[in-house]
Amino acid sequence: MFLRTISLKDSKEIDENTYPFTIPVIRNFSEVELRSNVTFFVGENGSGKSTLLEAIADQAGFNTAGGSRNNLYEVEKSSSVFGEYLQFSWMPKVNEGFFLRSETFYNFASHIDELQKIDGRAYDAYGGKSLHESSHGESFLALFNNRFSKGLYLLDEPEAALSPLRQLSLLKIIHDMESSGKAQFIIATHSPILMAYPNSRILDFDGDKIAEVEYEDTDHYNITKDFLNSPERYFRELFRDI
Questions:
Q1: pLDDT tens-digit profile of 129-188?
Q2: What is the CATH number for 162?
């Protein structure tokens, strides 16, 4: 591991009536200790997991629109309000890594196209062609397979473009990288496939404070398992006329 703790600076300027401090988990945030090479942030939409992940990217020096320290481009609403309130403990500090922001990946791919026009070598780090020339899922895997090597990797809902089979491919990539001791992952996800990764740590954002939770105690696992075992029971409840 490289990043060991994420903590809140001693600040008297926090206004709990302004975003993102209106989110319970963010308002009550004090410190998170990272004790695994792979950490998952889980919770419902709006729970604050992506907000914290983006703030980590900001303080790590990555482009909050998605990319590394070297990807300089802008996307509207990509700035992190929360990042300035955080401080990190590293051992050792790393500059390498990447922030995958699924919702702005199109803009990142377009940024790489522009770099290719300038020096003709930008595609080399992404499989040799434009990320726009593949399906969304294939372009994600091209990024993972060609651009990822060592450092800190922050992934915001990477499953958004990946089929279940491709999610398993991502787990293989994560395993190969983190088991070598060269990479650390923090992943915000809704995927019960991804969060099943062995020896990972799962942090739940659905309460007033971040809490560690076991895989089989997550709503994602239990709802998915229960639905697959008995979909008709869910349909009877959802569709009263069945």
A1: 888 888 888 888 888 888 888 999 999 999 998 999 999 999 999 999 999 999 999 999
A2: 3.40.50.300
- Round to whole Å and give the CA distance between 56 and 53: 5
Helix crossing, 136-147 with 105-119: angle to 10°? 60
Q: Is residue 240 part of a domain?
A: no
Locate 20 and state its tokens: 């993102």
Show the domain range for 19. 3-216
Query: For 57-74, how does the pLDDT look when each residue is reduced to its tens digit (9 = 90+)?
Result: 999 988 887 777 766 556
- Asked if residue 207 belongs to a domain, the reply is yes
Residue 118 within any structural domain of the chain: yes
* The two structure tokens encoding residue 48: 């604050």
Angle between helices 136-147 and 164-178 (to 10 degrees): 10
Q: Which of 62, 41, 82 is nearest to 188 (CA)?
A: 41
Q: Tokens 């397979």: give the residue.
A: 145
- How many domains is the chain built from? 1
Check: CB of residue 179 under 8 Å from CB of residue 173.
Answer: no
Q: Which residue has the tokens 């702005």?
A: 104
Tokens 């739940």 belong to 204
**Average pLDDT of the segment spanning 4-14:** 83
Output the CA angle 67-20-6, nearest 5 degrees. Answer: 60
Asked, for residue 136, whether it belongs to a domain, the answer is: yes
